[in-house]
Amino acid sequence: MSYENREGSGVLFSNTRKTKPNQPDWKGEVKINGVDMELVAWIKKGKNGYDFLSVSCKPKGQYQSPEKPKQAESQELPF
Q1: Best CA proximity match to 2, nearest among 55, 35, 11
Q2: Burial class (CB in 10 A: 0-12, 13-18, 19+), 62
Q3: Can you tell me the mean pLDDT for 10-23?
Q4: Which of 2, 16, 30, 69 has the fewest CB within 10 Å, making it most exposed?
C-alpha cells in the first residue's frame, strides 16, 4: 500500500541525488485543492546569517529531473 498525502499536507526528503548547486536541497510532494504538487526547497543564508528555506511548488511532472529529461511532445506526421 502506497502513502497518499492528505489535503493540505505533504512531505519533504533530502535530495540525495543533487549534483549541481542550483538543484533543490529538498524534494517532496504536497496535496493542494485535491491536486498532487511537487514541492522543492533550497537552504539559503539570510543577510542576518540565519538559514532559511526557499520553496517552490508546481503540479506534478512539471519539474525536469536531470536524471530523466522530459520527452518532447510527439508530433503527428502528415501521412
Answers
A1: 11
A2: exposed
A3: 93
A4: 2
Single out the residue of 6, 39, 5 nearest to residue 25, CA to CA.
39
The pLDDT of residue 62 is 73
Tell me the average pLDDT of the chain.
Answer: 81
- Taking the model in full, what pTM does it have? 0.68
pLDDT of residue 44: 94
Helix, strand, coil percent values for the chain (each to nearest 5) = 0, 40, 60
Reading across the β-sheet that carries 26-32, which strands appear in turn?
Answer: 10-14, 26-32, 35-45, 51-59
Residue whose grid cell is 529538498: 26
CA 18 to CA 50: how far, in whole Å? 23
Copy the grid coordinates of residue 22. 542550483
